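Researcher: Please translate sequence to structure tokens.
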Amino acid sequence: MATINYTLQKISADLFIKYESKEREYINQKISNFQTTINSYFGNNINEILVFGSYKRDTILPRKFDEDSDIDVLVVFNQAQNEFTPETYRSQLKRFAEAKYSTTKVLKDHPSVVLEMSNIKFDLVPCRLYSSFWGNTYQIPSKSGSWMDTDPKGFNEKLTSANNRYGSVVKPIIRLLKCWNADNSYPYASFELEQIIADMNFSNDNYQTGFLYAINNLPTNNLSDYQTKKVETLKNNKDWIKEYLDRDNQEKAIEVVCRILGVKI
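Model: Translation complete:
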């Protein structure tokens, strides 16, 4: 008989875009084409094109589970462009997208320009490399319209370290809860949810215990009433899972898991 631990492991594997899959091959080809196109358009004004975010961390969900899954791309303009404002950079990226992808939906969505293709979405973030006495720092647009420091690789390293430290359950649990998040109109911003889970302590946890622990420790401060109710419903369902496990009823516990995640097995 299947156990809840095995079921969660299987579902989390289904939520991973496998390295040899057609979806990953398609995404990689689109990224390559995009890099060629943007370099051709901007020429020497581009210093670096850096793919970062959930795709690099292996926490992105296949689009059939999350239609808002996107590829985060940092477009780093060179030093000669540093006098421009963040909004100027965004406008340049928008004009580029409209010129080169005329049949694609293009919109501004702070701090980025979103390029929505039929089966993939790019989130283009303008960036400059700011030089100081202490070295070079990536900077992206802030909500106030100025620049703010960012570390596009730092969280990747933190999450990888946590995943290795806790027996490789952290990234799968992130994918599981991102699946719930997408199925419930995003009570949490996707990156925020990853940060919350990356800070948790999964010592001696497997998929089952880690999943239940993560749900139990999801914060609700700063959430709206609607969002809070979504999280409270999740935690109530978590209590039912525990109840069924106490009764040694794996089948019913698995049913609740599938209801939480909106999947069928």
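Researcher: Any highlights?
Model: The longest helix spans residues 225-246.
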